[in-house]
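quick one if you have a minute, typing this from the bus. below you get a single protein, a line of residues and a line of whole numbers that encode the local backbone shape. could you go over both lines and see whether the tokens make sense for that sequence. anything you notice is useful, everything is just below.
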Amino acid sequence: MTICNWKSCAGVVAACAALTSSDLAVAGPPFITDDPEPVEYQHHEFYVSSQQVNTRDGRSGTLPHFELNYGAAPDLQLHIIVPYAFNNPVDGPRQRGLGDVELGAKYRFVHEAENRPMVGIFPIVLTHTGDADKGLGSGGTQVFLPVWLQKKWGEWQSYGGGGYWISSGTNVKNHWFAGWQLQKDISERLTLGGEVFHSTEQTSGEGSSTGFNVGGYYNFDEHNHLLLTVGRGVTNAERTNRSSSYVGYQWTW
């Protein structure tokens, strides 16, 4: 995982991943698009983050969510996100509580070379721990099966890919997600980048969505990092993403 890689904790932002939208679980913080690079063997990444998305129906997200990644073996990373979710609908009461817990394992099976990108898989399971009746979860288990690629050229790096969501939640459809990200190291401390992403229809009658995020991360030192992105949808934005944001602190060791 690059520093940073981030969601799960994702037209859509990772906030919805912890709540009602599976795409947003795909997170290479602070971006929704992920990469194939796992945490180094016996190393850790820990995040305390908040993410939110605004639509015509209200605002939802996490405040906060906790993410832990561990290099369990060479080329293998184990992953968990535990979200404290919120849902503020336009025409209903505010809701707070545990969201859908995310579990995953990232495996890199092709290492990057001069003329070859890095390639890996990152299957993810979203459990149905959140209360769907309160808008804090999907109401069923969801599984994401993606393939990710990454290549670096000097100060530039790009990664992306996509996969298929298998969903058993309330009114949640199986669907495809794809995204691509590009970033540049401005200095030893600052990296800036942007991404575009697309999802086919996730719920009946919602339609497909396309969006973007811009942002990056600031490295205070080798262990402490600040992450931030802001974005919005460019198609179907009223229903899926009028505006969205992610802010988080990452500790690596």
